[in-house]
Amino acid sequence: MLMSAAITDAASLGSAHVAGSRYLHLLDVARKLAPIRTAVVHPCDAVSLVSAMEAMEKGLIVPVLVGPVAKIRKAAQEVSRDLKDVELIDVPHSHAAAERAVALAREAQVEALMKGALHTDELMAAAVDKAGGLRTARRMSHVFAIDVSHYAKPLFITDAAVNIAPDLDAKRDIVQNAIDLLHALGIESPKVAILSAVETVSSKIPSTIDAAALCKMADRQQIIGGILDGPLAFDNAISSEAARTKGISSPVAGQVDVLVVPDLEAGNMLVKQLVYLAGAEAAGIVLGARIPIMLTSRADSDVARLASCALALLLVRRRLKPP
Q1: What are the backbone angles phi and psi of residue 61, rounded to the nearest 5°?
Q2: What is the mean pLDDT of the chain?
Q3: Which residues fall within 8 angstroms of residue 130, CB to CB, at 6 or more apart?
Q4: pLDDT per residue over 59-69, tens digit each?
Q5: What's the rounded Cα separation, in Å, for the pair 59 and 76?
Q6: Which of 52, 175, 197, 238 reaches 20 to 30 Å from 110, CA-CA?
Q7: How many Å apart are CA 183 and CA 232, to the nearest integer?
Q8: CATH classification for the domain delimited by 18-135+291-323, as one of 3.40.980.10, 3.40.190.10, 3.40.50.10950, 1.10.579.10
Q9: How far apart are CA 144 and CA 136, in angstroms?
Q10: How far is CA 72 from the centre of its chain?
Q11: Can you tell me the distance from the alpha carbon of 274 to that of 195, in angstroms, rounded to the nearest whole number?
């Protein structure tokens, strides 16, 4: 399995674990594959431009820089980067850059998109446009790949960036997108926890009802390829001891690969708590579109940005496309 070499026994972790180290195996595997031609949308600041160039240098992407060329060249001068062999497409502003990048994807001229110096909403508005976007039969959703020292393997959280308050049908796609991603990483039967505040089904907490329904959908093969359990509170999902204390018998508790959050607010807070309080690294990618979309952030570390590119590369080269 691609990620198995990065999974460490929990007893050996502790303070010796270096944040982001579990991404290194992922990067090594990805670099053995041909880089993907990637439209980098509005890379008009130093951070986004350097990120694209470093991914190119690591053999992960072939960048196509889409934005106001004068601003892109100015950013390149500020960080002493040579754009001589890089393709540039000149458009007047960030909105036009998003539309042009999406058009390139629809025309099969690029294999992935990478966010530059523009708001996520601006890029995703072009991607989800009904007429000219990148929609498929599957709902688009975002997955964070988290490397946190006090958990024994990589942890994936969805959806903390795209779907604000998903209904049951959207959650089905969110779960399936995450399972498909883990299959691309070589994790054959990912364990998926559907999170809520409690581990019992209650009519007063709608997310518990959704969790129960999703598990039954998996039983009926409406969700395939993973092992689901829920509702589970966060402690029960992460800790088998916590689950035992509460009398919960679960094939997922303490071994979870994917945490499915009730809504964007819960997920966003969870990811940022892990990053800023637990020293985690978070790489991310949007799934369910015609091609992968990397929503890198200015706050991301270098290794997290590269890991996002590696995730996109593995998805493309393994040809896991939504219906």
Answers
A1: -135, 160
A2: 91
A3: none
A4: 999 999 999 99
A5: 19
A6: 175
A7: 23
A8: 3.40.50.10950
A9: 21
A10: 26
A11: 16
Q: Assign 323 a pLDDT band (cuts: 50, 70, 90).
A: low
Checking if the pLDDT of 11 tops 60, the result is no
For the sheet containing 36-41, what is the strand order?
87-90, 61-67, 36-41, 112-115, 293-294, 281-287, 141-147, 155-158, 258-260, 191-195, 227-232
Q: Is the CB of residue 243 less than 8 Å from the CB of residue 257?
A: no
**Which of 164, 76, 123, 147 lies closest to 311 in space, CA to CA?**
147
Amino acid at 205: I
Q: State in words which class domain 137-288 has.
A: alpha beta
Indicate the pLDDT class of residue 312, thresholds 50, 70 and 90. very high
What is the spatial distance between Cα 205 and Cα 197, in angstroms, rounded to a whole number?
Answer: 8
Is 274 in contact with 136 (CB distance < 8 Å)? no
- pLDDT surpasses 50 at 24: yes
